[in-house]
TrEMBL record, chain A:
Keyword Protein biosynthesis part of the UniProt annotation: yes
The organism's taxonomic lineage, starting at the top: Eukaryota, Fungi, Dikarya, Ascomycota, Pezizomycotina
Descriptive protein name: Release factor
Pfam family membership, one: RF-1
Keyword Repressor: no
GO biological process assignments: mitochondrial translation
TrEMBL record, chain B:
Record PROSITE patterns: N6_MTASE
Keyword field contains ATP-binding: no
Record-given protein name: S-adenosyl-L-methionine-dependent methyltransferase
Keyword check for Transferase: yes
GO molecular function: methyltransferase activity; nucleic acid binding
Superkingdom classification of source: Eukaryota
Keywords: Methyltransferase, Transferase
GO cellular component, one term: mitochondrion
Length: 419, 420
């Protein structure tokens, strides 16, 4: 972080988290070819865009055109990455031919071999950035997010583990100086003590870009350990589910999005039933109840949310609206994505990733954490649970995996359009 | 009250040993869990820095207190009223959410109104903690057209007035220069007529207004007066209300020959008269239930000074089908909670112009013949607004006597200060 004066905003931290060069990203390329090589279809795509770019800039030089200008702006990062990649390719080729040239003397060959190492790394990086620039950014990646954690199968052990996960994410956020607030916390006895079984928690990570960081955490997290409650020392397997929703705090979304019927977050107030729960009876001066719960039901989908954390009824209402918007937007997005994946899957089997799938295992006995999507295993379980750098590593690997899937999908689309 | 099932108590104990104590007053597990959490948060706040043991003792004490029926709001010292956290204290009624809902709804209707006067004047009779004027101001603060607000809360109880002033201080936003609004609190007896004998602690409204150089004329009159009849007090209020909240705030005083129902209604005729005298264009009165709402609405209809009357339920902002009772429109969902009356420009402010809904002569006239409600500026008068009602309503006695009272009041005070 640089000289940010407001410690909790820390956009920079997230940006840095997201951009940290991740070697894992390159891994998918190893399956097909040398690490520095790009799938030809992707390169072709980049070249086509570069050609478009040239046409557009020519057009711009003849007179201003707002739409052309905008697209030039969008393309420039691809163009830049392509130039870098061409350069790196060239120097690798040059060095390679130098090394293979029988007339090259031994000393020079040694030097060239040294340089080749460095150039290969540069090429790998360039491939990486070119790929990244081509893969469309997730439409909600820039938004803050809500992380919802609930115990799954496994009784109170699952509930305890759900609490562990919550603290893991909180610690992760705190270590990275990312502002986070508990929007909802319900354990079975209404307190926030550690080790007490959790029934539901919603953590809001309010910094921009949080969804891009945390969306890889969605899914079923499995735990294998001897529960504290277990007297015979047997290892149990339980699970907790994590749901990650892009969050629409009015601030990051802008009023017009919430008001815009085209937006995923739009809700027609006429379609929402508001119930204010209060003590039965005469009300008014006759009773002095503290009941402040609010329940909202979206009638067309019958999604219903209720909030009762605060003594202030308007606050509960506001929180409930925010949650309802997020849930609904998620639903709409999932629906759209389903349509998309159905199309993509017809070409490439993209593993679906959603609430139902087991994504990661935390094994206490072996002190290891394995992510089933990226295939990454780390051994410093304590550091993971403490939200430490080992967790960064795991999350990074999943983001890399997600990008691979995106690239595969992109290539699939490419070959579709060719047909 | 039915006994709590043992299974529920056992379940509560398993969650937290303190919970069963709260079930008696809360009745439901969820409610008890919430209250325990809020008490715990409050204990955390005030026991900061003290030992864990001190904290536990404190919390247990609070739970015992609550279990005895003491309202949570008195224990933690505040209640939410709309967005505002209002200070509460035994001796002064805890603000109710239903009141906040009506006041918020009225404010939202007015906030976007066209043609409001440059200074909108709001009188709140029986103000208690001062919650109504404070919320009105808060909800009005982002009105699209800048309007100056003058708000005045009146109560008989000195305890209530002290608390109202504390609330005003607490909620005053320090960085907003308060040119745009003034709030005052004043002691007066709503039930006292101007010809009754006046004292400094219990002047009638007119005398109090005069004495403190407040205007005679007000645009909006709001009141949540004591409205529970003696029998209602014993049958419909909860134990916690009876045991801990001031009866003065709930049950109007007895008067000779009055029935139980009459006693519950004591304040309304007086409030409607005051509304006429101060020429309120909008009147919002809280009531106990539909029966009382209809009695108050019919009384207002008989007085024939309003052009529109409707009844609001607990959530007046919630859409419901069109409903009428005795010819009065009923708005919203929940129990019947207040009666809204308007006249003159009040109709336009509320967006009710098209609904010439009743009642009395004014609306029988074609629109063009109805009085134009402008306020000619009279320089010599302390209050520059002249009265549109003056020449056409039943009350043609302006309380000139009030000036004498004003003088009497001054003398009383100067005598008082001499004594000291
Ligand atoms: C039901 S409480 C309403 C308080 C506050 N407006 C609220 O909504 O929370 C009624 C208030 O009327 C006051 N009161 C009772 N008799 C009165 C009287 N004769 N004149 C003025 N105020 C009176 C009580 O002190 C009490 O504060």
């Amino acid at each position: 972080m640089t000289s940010t004066t407001t410690p909790w905003i820390c956009r920079g931290c997230l940006v840095r988290l997201a951009r940290r060069p991740a070697r894992h990203h390159v891994r998918f390329l190893t399956q097909t070819a040398a690490p520095e090589s790009m799938p030809p279809a992707l390169v072709a795509r980049a070249r086509a865009i570069a050609a478009d770019h040239k046409q557009l800039t020519d057009k711009l030089s003849q007179g201003f055109d707002a739409r052309a200008a905008k697209r030039v702006g969008e393309f420039s990062s691809i163009l830049h990455a392509l130039q870098k990649w061409d350069q790196a390719n060239e120097s690798v080729a040059e060095l390679t031919s130098l090394i293979h040239d029988p007339t090259t003397d031994a000393e020079l060959r040694e030097l060239a071999a040294d340089d080749l190492e460095a150039s290969r790394t540069a090429l790998a990086d360039a491939s990486q950035s070119l790929t990244t620039s081509l893969v469309p950014v997730h439409p909600f990646a820039h938004l803050p997010c809500l992380i919802e954690i609930r115990p799954g199968a496994g009784g109170s052990e699952a509930a305890i583990f759900a609490g562990d996960l919550l603290r893991m994410y909180q610690a992760f956020c705190n270590r990275n100086h990312v502002r986070n607030t508990l929007l909802k916390y319900e354990n079975t006895n209404g307190t926030q003590e550690g080790g007490v079984p959790l029934s539901e928690a919603i953590l809001e990570v309010a910094s921009d870009g949080a969804y891009g960081i945390f969306r890889c955490e969605a899914g079923v997290h499995r735990v294998q350990r001897v529960p504290v409650t277990e007297t015979k020392g047997r290892t149990h397997t339980s699970a907790a589910s994590v749901l990650v929703l892009p969050s629409v705090e009015e601030r990051s979304l802008g009023e017009e999005d919430v008001e815009d019927p085209e937006s995923d977050y739009y809700i027609d107030p006429k379609e929402v039933k508001t119930e204010i729960m209060r003590a039965r009876g005469a009300g008014g001066q006759h009773v002095n109840t503290t009941e402040s719960a609010v329940r909202l039901t979206h009638l067309p989908t019958s999604i219903s949310v209720s909030m009762q954390d605060s003594r202030s009824q308007p606050k509960n209402k506001e929180k409930a609206w925010r949650l309802l918007r997020s849930r609904l937007a998620q639903l709409r997005r999932e629906k759209r994505e389903e349509d998309m994946t159905a199309m993509r899957r017809s070409v490439v089997g993209v593993a679906k990733m959603g609430r139902g799938d087991k994504v990661r295992t935390y094994n206490w006995g072996q002190q290891r954490v394995t992510d089933h999507r990226s295939g990454t295993t780390v051994h410093d379980l304590d550091d993971v649970m403490a939200g430490g750098q080992t967790l960064d590593k795991v999350m990074e690997s999943v983001r890399g995996w997600l990008m691979e899937k995106d690239v595969e999908a992109l290539l699939a689309e490419e070959s579709l359009t060719k047909k | 009250m039915p006994r709590l099932p043992t299974s529920l108590l056992r379940k509560a104990r398993a969650i937290d040993p303190l919970l069963p104590r709260l079930l008696g007053v809360c009745r439901e597990l969820r409610a008890a869990q919430n209250e325990l959490r809020w008490l715990r948060e409050y204990a955390d706040k005030i026991a900061r820095g003290r030992s864990g043991k001190a904290h536990r003792t404190l919390l247990r004490g609070m739970v015992e207190n609550r279990a005895s029926g003491k309202p949570l709001q008195y224990i933690v010292g505040t209640e939410y009223f709309g967005d505002l956290e209002i200070k509460c204290r035994p001796g002064v009624l805890i603000p109710r959410q239903e009141t906040a809902a009506s006041v918020t709804h009225l404010t939202h209707l007015l906030r976007s109104a066209q043609g409001l006067p440059d200074e909108l004047r709001v009188l709140d009779l029986c103000t208690g903690t001062g919650c109504i004027p404070l919320l009105f101001k808060h909800e009005f603060s982002d009105a699209p057209h800048p309007v100056r607000l003058r708000l005045l809360g009146i109560d008989l109880s000195q305890e209530a007035l002290d608390l109202a002033k504390q609330n005003l201080e607490r909620l005053q936003e320090p960085d907003v220069d308060d040119e745009s609004s003034v709030i005052n609190f004043l002691q007066a007896d709503v039930l006292k007529e101007s010809w009754d004998e006046q004292t400094v602690e219990r002047p009638c409204i007119q005398a109090a207004l005069n004495f403190s150089r407040q205007p005679q004329f007000w645009d909006v009159l709001i009141s949540n007066p004591p409205y529970i009849s003696p029998s209602g007090y014993w049958t419909t209020t909860t134990r916690s209300v009876r045991g801990f909240e001031p009866k003065l705030a709930l049950v109007p005083p007895a008067s000779e020959g009055a029935t139980d129902t009459d006693q519950g209604d004591t304040f309304y005729p007086r409030l409607l008269t005051i509304a006429s005298e101060c020429e309120a264009k909008i009147i919002l009165l809280e009531v106990a239930d539909m029966k009382q709402a209809l009695r108050v609405a019919n009384l207002a209809r008989r007085l024939n000074t309003c052009t529109g009357i409707e009844i609001w339920r607990d959530q007046p902002d919630q859409k419901s089908g069109t409903e009428h009772q005795d010819g009065f429109p009923v708005i919203g969902t929940g129990n019947a909670r207040s009666v809204l009356c308007w006249r003159g420009p009040g109709a336009a402010w509320l967006g009710k112009e098209d609904e010439l809904n009743v009642m009395g002569a004014a609306t029988d006239m074609p629109l063009s013949l109805q009085p134009q409600f402008t306020y000619p500026f009279v320089e010599s008068s302390e209050d520059s607004r002249s009265s549109y009602l003056e020449d056409r309503t039943m009350h043609n006695h302006r309380p000139r006597g009030a000036y004498k009272l004003f003088e009497a009041g001054r003398q009383l005070v100067s005598q008082d200060s001499k004594k000291k």
